[in-house]
Amino acid sequence: MNIYRYEENPLITPMDVTPYHKNFEVIGTFNAGVTEFNGETILVLRVAERPLSKDPNIVKAPVYNPATDELEVVELKKDDTRYDFSDPRVILDKETNKFVYLTSLSYLRLARSKDGRHFTIDDKPFVYPSNIHETFGIEDPRVTKIEDTYYVYFSAISPMGVGESLVSTKDFEQTVHHGMIFSPENKDVTIFPEKINGKYYALHRPVPSATGAPQVWIAESDNLLYWGNHQFLFGLRNNMWDDGRIGAGAVPIKTDKGWLELYHGASKDNRYCMGALLLDLEDPTKIVARSEKPLLEPETSYEVEGFFGNVVFSCGVLVEGDIVKMYYGVADTSMACAELSINEVLDSLTYY
């Protein structure tokens, strides 16, 4: 398969973005939702900021306080035996092995481009934490346009868990908050861009704790707010590139052969790749075909090396004829783009 990575990659790096918070540094500009608006490519960019620490023995954790509408910083000593600081992204409770803090706060910021390659980034957030479900930040947005409205949905993180929340906009200036549409533990939601037989559909990725695994489900809705008739869709595959965890990536693309979903899969050693799934046009609960091998995998230096290396992770694409422009996060650090042929992707799949 022919994959054309842009010469300008990475398109947006942390060095390109000024911190919104005083005494913070931008450590990640990645995993952006993608759409077009007023002749521009819009990236709804996940920006991760970390508080600066002059003391190497102190780890700081930013927490949004909804009562005061302010960002607070918790300081922890590395010799505190209650916590595991080995993962630079999180602070784990050794007793429960669950994270109690994140080391950075993510929010959403807009990046705009006339050519899809050179971007300017807005100075202020587009969506910022605003309630008790978002105290640890908001991450990994997707954008679905339906008629004249853009629906932006993202992972909302708090001590209560990770769920999926929804806002909508018509102009990328004013937003309407619709609350949490998938409760914890759930993420990697993608909403189809049109009704199918009178219903909206969404892919989502619950994370069961008693039994099961992080795999992809499908749900339906009459109004985009209340989702039901949940059905398991597809799962992990032993000894393959997606045997660790999987999740929906880009908003599904309508083709003559079916709905093409570009999804991410991670191996058990946390190497993230992008693959594809083909769903029936009239009944997206039916799988038509799936990738045996990754379409895109971490190979270049900017994909292999970064805050969390060996990651390619797409939350959105643009389609122009046979070309799909896959915008994707690299190494949990920056944004890149690659072009693929839809027909080549369809031909590469294994049909059932």
Automatic annotation (TrEMBL):
It holds the Pfam family Glyco_hydro_130. InterPro entries: Glyco_hydro_beta-prop_sf, Mannoside_phosphorylase. One of its GO terms (molecular function) is hydrolase activity. The keyword Iron does not apply. It comes from the Bacteria. Keywords: Glycosyltransferase, Hydrolase, Transferase. The keyword Transferase applies. Belongs to the glycosyl hydrolase 130 family. This is Glycoside hydrolase family 130 protein. It comes from Lederbergia citri.
